[in-house]
Amino acid sequence: MYNTNYFLMTPGPTMVQDNVLQARTQYMGNPDIDSNFFKFYEDTCNKLATILNSKNSSNIIMCGEAMLGLESACSSLTEIGDNVLVIENGVFGKGFSDLVTLYGGNVTLYSSDWKKPINSAELDLFLSKSDLSFKYATFVHCDTPSGILNDVKEITKILKKYNILSVVDSVAAMGGVSLDIDNWEVDICLGGTQKAFSAPTGLSIITVSQKAWSTIQNRKKPIIGFYTNLSLWKNCVKEKLFPYSLPSQDILGLSVALDNILEIGLDNIFTKHNNAQAYTLEYLKKIGLKLYLEEGFSPTVTAFLTPKECTSIEIIEHLKTKYGVLIASSYGPLKDIVLRIGHMGENIQKENLLYTLESLKNTLIDLKKD
Ligand SMILES: *Cc1c(COP(=O)(O)O)cnc(C)c1O
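A: This is the predicted complex of the input protein with pyridoxal-5'-phosphate.
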């Protein structure tokens, strides 16, 4: 068996409430044929629209982990030779350039300091000097490998000024940080289930604005790809036809996870995330650990430097084996440099967080003795 009997304090997947796990054990029915399923799917999308304030957009739940959403946005918008601006200050931000290139887009990379949020005034200046006309721009709300939080409202505002569609990866922020898709006029926003929503991995969440739909519909050439074709999802509830069979258990679980959030109330949820972050930052500093970022700490995840005396793997393994807590290493250039605690979704429960931080402190003491 695969033993997962530990606290899952990683920045996704996160811990999942029992009622979510139970919902997933329900008999699956036939989502292609049963008309009640379409109503249930729509209701679940409407819960998302409440959480994201995205009632003016289409709210789509696709079957496939969040990377499917990122790839679908690039596949559906990009035509060969389109100019695309990839705004990056982290691993996921930069990673968008591979997806855009895969579908024939011409990437202009706008790179900014990884330890600070994107500065929208500097972006504005860059765009005012650029001769290229960009079809869309990508950026990340919370770039999880470093835990940086970018200001979606301000960046989207600048992109609008230059008539550039916005594609925002909010996988690691959505549900833990406030989003206002309608008022900020975000064109495509992407999420997953396994981060702040605290449901198991397996679904992509996508909002698509009317403007993004018209861009997709006005393509000269068809979308390359079937699984990544967003237009197949535009009218699927109305037409009672999904592009393929949906995993009803995943959506049953998500629906209960969203109820859990709505029951606590969005303002409370965001405050709790802020508190969890403040508590984590303070505790890490108190035990002598150094934070990776200079500013722009996300309320959902904190990255700290691996202390010189030991490796990231040693800390992760000791913490897991002796104390039953799993935290995360990182990716790309941050791989061996930082460790991360995910304080999002269910992970923000004070007692879990306190136990995690105390166990981390004890792990560092244990490893020093060895
Ligand atoms: C988790 C995450 C994704 C999805 O990728 P995984 O394969 O689940 O890691 C995409 N973007 C961001 C910012 C994420 O945190």
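The radius of gyration is 21 Å. The first strand starts at residue 7 and ends at 8.
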